[in-house]
Amino acid sequence: MHWEKFSEKDRLCVIKELEEKFNVRLTAISPYRKYLKDEKNTRYLICGGRENWHGFPPEIVVKEENESTGAFLVFASKGITEIKVFIGPLCPLIRNKERLKQLSNKQYQFNITFNEKFAQVIEIRAYYLELLSEIKSEKQY
Hints:
This protein is an alpha+beta fold. It has helices at residues 8-22, 58-66, 91-95, and strands at residues 27-29, 32-37, 43-49, 53-56, 72-78, 82-89, 101-102, 108-114, 118-121, 128-136. Strands 1, 2, 3, 4, 5, 6, 7, 8, 9 and 10 form a ten-stranded mixed β-sheet that branches.
């Protein structure tokens, strides 16, 4: 399967989809465009792309360790004609941060594999995200 680059336009489509599905308004938690919150302070870490590895800064880990509200990990995988949006609790990723590779810039890296219904974080065996929706996207050449 051929994967296309995940753009800022794609990220905005995913944000709009989450807002519609959950009837919320999302705003970025500065300075991170992939880390958002809604009116009830529920947080969403949106990772997207065409590769199976993703990363996030250690500051997000610190914030999540200090907050006990339920945050979500949203993984958006862009194909040629659609973006598959998977969602699950962020807590297992934060709790198991020692299983993740930490890059030279201190970002935590994790790998994803997925099928039609679920995405799995490879480093955390029993950690699955469920397919939330599929967004149709324009072909890019």
